[in-house]
Task: inverse folding
């Protein structure tokens, strides 16, 4: 882009707190190329003094990681910290009037009890920020400055079933959802765990946290219910497989009464007709179709006479499941085209 | 082993028809090292004139592939052919009094209508052979000479749920099973399909044949019901992932009434107490735990108050899901220790 | 980018002939997002009627592939065809005054004898176009409209040694180069060969075409010599490994007389000081540092007293080794910033 | 095998010190199935109290890891410890008259200066044991009870070039060897390093320790020279790639004078005619041809008029490059068929 073009755009200043993890690196990549922002500071406690180019040479960025100590000079702050750390930092950023997008689970749950159960940490009822899933809550996001960015599994699952709960078909009622999701290993972060080493995970698959994964309550909450008094049965089995990026969710859904395939198709197409990153596809989707993109692909694979649905959803855990959705939320808050910097 | 030892063992002669595919290659490997058999002939239509060492140098075998034209000189025949081809060859082998183990789907289903629907081929009601799953049908297998070897997905799923149907707990009744299985790509055979190339499948996942996979009717049949008049809801979603070998099945089961975890654990341990290749494990299993072995690992990951179970089963699709189970069947028919050549 | 900005840019129309292969897909991706061009037509003989979104859903492009039958309506044509096919199509495009960038080997070699030997095809001495490696031939490229885009291995190797031949250090003379390069399997194109299937190539490595690879003569030519009367010994061993993208070249170089490490470092930094995509790195480079980028990383790993150098070069075979370099060439021809659409 | 057969075999008792790493696990697997030994104790400092089945369920072994504190009750001891630790333990085992096979580098080098330089540790000149490469030193191994097992890269490289140095062709003289070897990541052991995590190494390649790898001096020593006063130029570039097992070495060799391809072929076939695990192959070898076997495949890919050779060697780093070769050495010391338990 010529400098003339750059000059005529209003550039917001942006900083990332927790910039050295995989989500932080993807944020860095996206924001460096975003035409409406200028990436100011990259904060990363464990990498102070190192450069982005030391950890992620592919980003082509020579900025150094710094220690965050309360600065509020940027217009926008992204936080990509381990769970628990944002709880301390967000309040003062909000008070300073900053746009804040937090990628952790700290502010996702309204119910402190559920937070306590799934994150093993107490928090106050005020520690909640609007759930940044534009396809469900675009209106709320537009009115907010501080957003809690959804979890990766949660994004994949919620987007795959939301039309059944929040769509216009009042006759449809969900009785049960069985969800099996396979995630790329980058979902575990930049890790030094033996069980995530190449030698252990190549050509391997491993389920974990069956029925107790912390994304469960945010899925229920987004669908209008809770883990305490659920309006439908929900089983979630997360797995990691032999891939770096992507989440692939197989959603087995039982409805209260049978539905026609056409009716379901129409419901989904309608629900997502203004959602540029959701593609309701007629053919089977794959991880390869969505990695390195902000798309979430949804395929309605089967609708049976007994009222069961089989829906497959695929997205990139680091993009639509983290950094991409975060930038999408920023775009909406700033009043920009939702797709800016993401296509 | 010294020649003295070899001499004092009775050696059966064995041949493989369809020896050049991946299951055929695993049969070759197992039978070459089996102390009670001598591998005679390797038949492979498409590879006539080539040696095993050309296709599978790791096997360390210099035999040449030949054209099968009706020979019956071996004591035992394994057939590892594309579906449909064994239907023609098996009858004369059986008539000649041979031990026959067929790895295809041709003789698995009792009901010709189900066969027609799932294999798109007519067959007579006689075209059925005892289903060679030793953990369920050991007595029958011992009495037979001709066996139909189970499918890979079917093995993984049946073994994961069989105690609920065939175990001693009469109070347990299954209402629904949702099964999501990820298979290694070797399950598709030695393939020249673009969609199975490394560039397409590396770091990819792809579901296929949702609800219509041909292993469905054999699963139902082994569990004492059928796809036509099923005694429980069954959904099966097969996937291929970024791995060569292994099947990993996530089995969501809904019981008619709640059960205690201890009760289920006991049921499984009892059911498999004489099954040397089934390991009911207390901790999560992984593909890495079973590849290159004949084990099927089963982990009861969750038992809820509402009567839902989450069971994970893992096996090597080419071994317990094909060639290993075939050799296990042969051992049983011959009256040998079931584990011979498999540990 | 707002529509206002788009309007004030002159957009060139671009078409791709041979758009359905992996290089064609990368060209599609890059050109769709390039601010100075409009992607007009995608020609692909074998995919006529299919959409980009059928083959490459990640590109988010709904254009249909068409049959090329001599159209010349676009300003710029990229050809990404199997070797031999561009020979027929390029002349009329050139005659029509189009900007032509050919990604095949058809127009790379000046010497028809070498072309005959390595490509098994006769061609006339006129069938040569300026070799589009900007870091070596930027001046020539600026003056041309028709360019032959370098091969992927050739790019990796030439860039790794060029300063020794074309740099300012007249005292340095190369006696021998032993090059071992590992390529991602995408280098073989969208393939349906059994030996490139996932099951065959996962966790595998395979050398091929040892000493006879067709990129050999273009490497020699770019370095000012030829395979017929070489001014230095050259051995090239290409391999494919268990990865989709990237080329990693280990360059063992023997100089006529010893050199100091500092001298070599300076030579390289000088040679590439105006090359935005070449990074002479102080630490070891990896495939991960360059995939999905147009960078070529070069690391001088060792300089010994006996005059031997060990240089490692890494690039993405589909970007700096194909589509990325092609767009870089287009930018130069159009007088744009070389990096446009590539950062 | 029936118990009758077992009874009539003399069984040696064997223990492994350092049993919990990848080499230790492969030793466990091989020794459990070896007809002439009984696996007694598995010592592993870091895993005391854990079972083999916790770490390596695929081995199907329920033994617990113990703390080694000087026991000498077994007939045979394998040591698979981090470099430096065997130096302390071996002397008392030797003194107790045990058969000792050490898989570390501690006793490989005769020259304490070279050991100091490459292992950063002082050792006495006595700290040397016969180099256990049967194809070169079978006679010496037969006479010894304590053996130093070769390194994985060293095995791959030495076997690839040994006939040129130790064969019967006195006219052949090597001037230079440039070696580029790609290793599976298991070569780095059971690791918790971030840079060896799946997310970092999938689809990646990384060279390291260029020119300074500790296997260099043992290669030189086995070929009858040293790093201090080398009789030929030697460059070694190790790399890790996107695979768990295997080493693939590309050996560029410059001879003093040209040789005929036939002469080289004959030399290699002759040299290895009594070596059951070395296969001199007419066609290109691959990692897939040797993993999970004790074979080392060698292919003479090119012999040029200028006297340069291109030889490719492939083996499994954990078998012929570690545990398999260790068992082969044990077989030779015990007077058994070299292949026992390895085919």
Result:
């Amino acid at each position: 882009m010529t400098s003339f073009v750059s000059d005529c755009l209003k550039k917001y200043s942006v900083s990332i707190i927790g910039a050295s993890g995989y989500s932080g690196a993807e944020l860095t990549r996206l924001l460096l190329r975003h035409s409406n922002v200028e990436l100011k500071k990259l904060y990363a406690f464990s990498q102070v003094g190192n450069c982005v180019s030391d950890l992620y040479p592919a980003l082509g960025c020579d900025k150094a990681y710094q220690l965050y100590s309360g600065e509020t000079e940027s217009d926008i702050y992204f936080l990509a910290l381990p769970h628990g750390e944002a709880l301390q930092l967000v309040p003062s950023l909000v008070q300073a009037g900053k746009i804040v997008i937090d990628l952790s689970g700290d502010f996702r749950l309204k119910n402190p009890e559920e937070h306590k159960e799934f994150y093993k940490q107490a928090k106050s009822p005020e520690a909640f920020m609007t759930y940044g899933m534009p396809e469900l809550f675009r209106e709320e996001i537009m009115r907010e400055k501080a957003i809690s960015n959804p979890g990766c599994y949660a994004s994949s699952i919620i987007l795959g079933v939301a039309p059944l709960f929040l769509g216009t078909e009042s006759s449809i009622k969900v009785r049960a959802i069985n969800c099996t999701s396979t995630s790329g290993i980058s979902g575990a972060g930049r890790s030094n765990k033996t069980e995530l080493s190449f030698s252990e995970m190549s050509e391997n698959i491993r389920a974990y946290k069956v029925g107790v994964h912390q994304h469960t309550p945010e899925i229920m909450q987004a669908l209008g219910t809770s883990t305490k008094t659920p309006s439908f049965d929900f089983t979630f089995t997360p797995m990691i497989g032999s891939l770096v990026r992507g989440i692939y969710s197989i959603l087995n859904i039982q409805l209260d009464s049978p539905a026609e395939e056409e009716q379901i198709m129409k419901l989904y197409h309608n629900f997502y007709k203004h959602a540029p990153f959701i593609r309701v596809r007629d053919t089977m989707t794959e991880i390869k179709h969505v990695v390195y993109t902000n798309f979430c692909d949804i395929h309605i694979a089967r609708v049976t006479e007994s009222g069961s649905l089989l829906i497959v959803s695929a997205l990139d855990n680091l993009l639509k499941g983290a950094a991409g959705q975060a930038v999408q939320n920023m775009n909406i808050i700033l009043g920009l085209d939702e797709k800016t910097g993401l296509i």
Summary: The longest helix of chain A spans residues 152-166.
